[in-house]
Design goal:
The complex is a heterodimer. By secondary structure, chain A is mainly alpha-helical. Helices cover about 70% and strands about 5% of the residues of chain A. Chain A has one domain (about 1-285): ABC transporter involved in vitamin B12 uptake, BtuC (Orthogonal Bundle). By secondary structure, chain B is mainly α. Chain B has one domain: ABC transporter involved in vitamin B12 uptake, BtuC (Orthogonal Bundle), CATH 1.10.3470. Chain B has helices spanning about 15-20, 25-50, 55-75, 85-105, 105-125, 135-155, 175-195, 200-210, 210-215, 220-245, 255-270, 275-290, 295-310, 315-325; strands spanning about 5-10, 165, 250, 325-330. The chains are: A mainly alpha, B mainly alpha. At the A-B interface, helix 4, helix 9 and helix 11 of A face helix 6, helix 11 and helix 13 of B.
Chain lengths: ~290, ~325
């Protein structure tokens, strides 16, 4: 149980990472997050099964395509709407819907749409049998978190990201183009989520409804943990992850999807800025 | 430097004259003022009784959706951008459905009760999110209906996945048409009146600058609760009405169409104008009916329209038409 809770938490963190990163830097709440997830999985499936490319190549291609799509969304649509929150929310949401419902109406559903695990089989961890794919998820998840941390704190581009996140006007005066950085942040965010999709989807089938679930989960994680801090996302993911696993073990598995909602409402009532929200966020939120 | 030409907009003389109500002096000016207001209403009122039967039914649904759109627009003018309008609809639908199903109450009790109670229940459900601003509020409103749907699915309360059917129906089509038309115009003019009253000014100020409202010693949270109550009661009425119209209620009351349709018609018609959403709904409703055979692909079309309009004509159709009617343009 502990092991499964841990794995579940890492999955949640992986899902939410891209969303929180995009939002933290460019202030764009990417409501198309869930559809990028499904799209990433589907593109990988397409390259792997229909085009017959090797696994690694198809993963890279899918992640790159989704990344470019995210960047294009910013470049051609969102850049016209900067500052109009209503318009930003509606347009990303609508774009996500277009992608998801288009896939649904084309008929993406069923058992054939599934990715094979990287390495089949399972091993015993602390007395529980766990599929190797899940272990890969944990490893890759932790690795990605570390990479993101290093990237944001120790590279030129990452520092520019943080600069724009803190104050885009000041960043502009020292020669960082906030529009470019925001575009890149959307790109990184969508790449992260499609990478998460590639890692997680071998556990089940690719379905369109996943898109909504993923969006909901990442929103819940981001609201519970403060935004723009990787640590908050991780902590919130662990709270939610264990809460879900505990509910499905002791109460009912069908209720486990309700847990994020309850957690979120409780947190909002007690501490509206989220668990690790900073003062700046508090001002923006309330 | 090359001088850039720009478009100059000048009020038509007749508008300048009729802007002040005291100056109306001729029949022509009265017509200028009344025609754009009275004509659409009259056309709608007359047309609805003379179209073929099938389109009458479509129009009833359109009017109900127009109420949802107007209510969304009202909430958006209060700075509460909801992505889950279906929640309010479903609350009303389920309340009237269960009152009718379990207690056997007649419709002239269940619909008003569902309207009043629905507003209260929705306000309670949304309450934790009300302290949030802007985007954060939208995020939460997106989540709540989907989660409630899961709860009903999982716990099998109120009919579970199948919902409740065999509810009592509305007495006849003329009744539903008149009720829906009247309710729509009541919502439109009622909200317009409300927004121009003292309370309405506070509602509008919530969107523009809620700090200033708070600094004036007004409780923003309480005003937001009031706004949500009004907006969601309207939607709850729609839910209750549709429940009895279809004689059943189910999980489809939470469907995403119901959240996206009001937004689409508001963006199409013009956000913040109240009459715009009505226009948008009257355009989109029959359109979506004509596209019914496409199934979920309709959502794609709505969303595409949303994106096109929000990027291309952000003000919406209604303000656009209004400007054309009131102003002349020329290049200078």
């Amino acid at each position: 149980m502990l092991v499964y809770g841990f794995i579940n938490s890492i999955i949640l963190a992986l899902i939410a990472l891209g969303f929180s990163m995009t939002f933290g830097i460019s202030r764009v709440a990417n409501f198309a997050h869930g559809s990028f997830y499904v799209l990433g999985g589907l593109l990988t499936w397409f390259f792997l099964r229909k085009a017959g490319l090797p696994y690694v190549v198809s993963v890279i291609a899918a992640v790159l395509i989704v990344g470019v799509l995210g960047a294009a969304m910013y470049r051609f649509l969102l850049v016209r709407l900067r500052g109009l929150e209503l318009a930003e929310v509606i347009s990303t949401f609508a774009l996500g819907l277009i992608i998801l419902e288009l896939m649904r109406s084309v008929g993406i559903m069923g058992f054939q749409y599934r990715l094979p695990p990287f390495v089949p089989g399972s091993v015993s961890v602390f007395g529980t049998y766990v599929g190797i794919q899940r272990l890969i998820i944990v490893g890759a998840g932790l690795f990605l978190l570390a990479i993101i941390y290093l990237f944001v704190h120790h590279t030129r581009l990452g520092l520019a990201f943080r600069g724009v996140a803190q104050d885009d006007h000041t960043a502009f005066t020292v020669g960082i183009n906030p529009d470019r950085i925001s575009m890149l942040s959307l790109m990184v965010g969508s790449m992260l989520v499609s990478l998460a999709a590639v890692l997680i989807l071998p556990l089940g089938t690719i379905s369109v409804d996943d898109g909504y679930d993923i969006l909901l989960k990442s929103l819940a994680v981001c609201i519970i943990g403060g935004l723009e801090s990787t640590f908050g996302v991780l902590a919130a993911a662990f709270i939610l992850g264990y809460a879900e696993v505990l509910t499905s073990m002791y109460i009912s598995s069908s209720l486990s999807m309700v847990v994020p909602l309850l957690c979120m409402l409780v947190i909002l009532l007690i501490k509206p800025s989220g668990l690790f929200g900073k003062h700046k966020e508090l001002e923006e939120r309330i | 430097m090359k001088e850039k030409r720009r478009r100059e907009r000048i009020d038509r003389p007749i508008k300048a004259v009729t802007d002040d109500i005291y100056c109306i002096s001729s029949f022509r000016e009265i017509v200028y003022l009344m025609l754009p207001r009275a004509l659409p209403i009259l056309i709608l009122l007359i047309a609805v009784f003379f179209v073929p039967l099938y389109w009458k039914k479509v129009l009833v649904i359109t009017f109900i959706m127009a109420i949802m759109a107007i209510s969304w627009d009202f909430l958006a003018s209060c700075g509460l951008i909801s992505l889950g309008q279906a929640l309010f609809f479903a609350v009303g639908a389920y309340i009237s459905g269960s009152l009718n199903h379990y207690l056997g109450w007649p419709i002239y009790l269940t619909i008003p009760l569902a309207t009043l109670l629905g507003g209260a229940v929705s306000a309670m459900l949304i309450f934790p999110a009300l302290r949030l601003r802007g985007m954060y509020f939208s995020m939460v409103t997106l989540i709540i209906p989907l989660m409630l749907m899961r709860i009903i699915e999982a716990t099998k309360i109120m009919g579970g996945t199948e919902g409740m059917s065999g509810l009592s129906s509305l007495p006849g089509l003329p009744f539903s048409i008149s009720v829906s038309v009247l309710a729509m115009f009541a919502a439109l003019f009622g909200l317009r009146r409300l927004l121009s009253s003292d309370n309405g000014m506070i509602f509008l100020a919530l969107k523009d600058n809620d700090r200033a409202v708070e600094a004036s010693g007004l409780n923003t949270l309480w005003f937001k609760v009031k706004a949500i109550y009004i907006g969601s009661a309207l939607c709850a009425f729609c839910g209750a009405f549709m429940t009895h119209y279809y004689m059943s209620v189910g999980l489809s009351a939470f469907a995403l169409d119901l959240s996206i349709f009001p937004i689409a018609s508001c963006v199409l018609g013009g956000i913040g104008t109240l009459a715009g959403p009505l226009l948008g709904a009257v355009i989109l409703g029959p359109l979506s009916e004509a596209l019914r055979s496409l199934g979920t692909f309709r959502i794609v079309i709505y969303s595409a329209l949303l994106v096109i309009f929000i990027a291309g004509l952000p003000e919406g159709i209604f303000p656009f038409l209004k400007r054309k009617y009131e102003q002349t343009e020329r290049w200078v």
